[in-house]
Each structure stands twice: as structure tokens, then as C-alpha cells.
Amino acid sequence: MTSSDRFDDLVAAYALDAVDTDERRAFAAVLADDPDLQRELADVRAVAAILAEAVEGAPSTPSPRVWEGIASSIAGERRRAQCRSS
Fold it and tell me: Which of 5, 13, 37, 76 has a beta carbon 3.0–4.6 Å from 1's, enabling a disulfide?
């Protein structure tokens, strides 16, 4: 097992700044001398950037039509359940 193998599971967390101070220091120390880990981190950051851009344009709340469809579906299920129990 190489030193970078121990940090494979931390790459995404490090890229998203979701590691604690000790993990950050340990990861950064290994990262400085490991080109493979540097490439993997760059790949993860690139994917994260693409996902962030995709989410930026998405509405934060569904349109009213979505909620109308959900309510209609629930009402239909209730009617069917009532018919079955009668």
C-alpha cells in the first residue's frame, strides 16, 4: 500500500473542503509529493465545478405544475384506496 492509497477516500472530501484540520494537513503533506494524487484531486475538482455549474441554472423550487401533479396523484391514490375499501 502506497501512502496515497491511504488517502484515496479523502480526495473528494478534501476537494470539497470537508475534512478537519488534521486530515487537511496530512493530506496536503502527501499531496505535495504525489503526482497521481494531484491528478486525481484535479479530476475531482473538475467534476465538482461541472456539477456546480449545472446546479446554478436549476430552479431552487419546483414549478407549481410539479406540485399540482403530486397533489393530483395523491388524490387519485386516495380515491382508489377508498373504492377498494368499500
Answer: 5
Note the pTM of the prediction, 2 decimals.
Answer: 0.59
> Which of 52, 44, 50, 47 is CA-nearest to residue 27?
44
Q: 17: phi > 0 → left, psi -120 to 50 → alpha, else beta; which?
A: left
Residues 46-66, mean pLDDT to the nearest whole number: 81
Cell 491511504 sits at which residue? 6
pLDDT at 4 over 60: no
* Cell 496530512 found at: 26
Q: How far apart are CA 54 and CA 36, in angstroms?
A: 27
Q: How far apart are CA 12 and CA 16, in angstroms?
A: 6
Number of separate helices (H) and strands (E) present in the chain:
4, 0
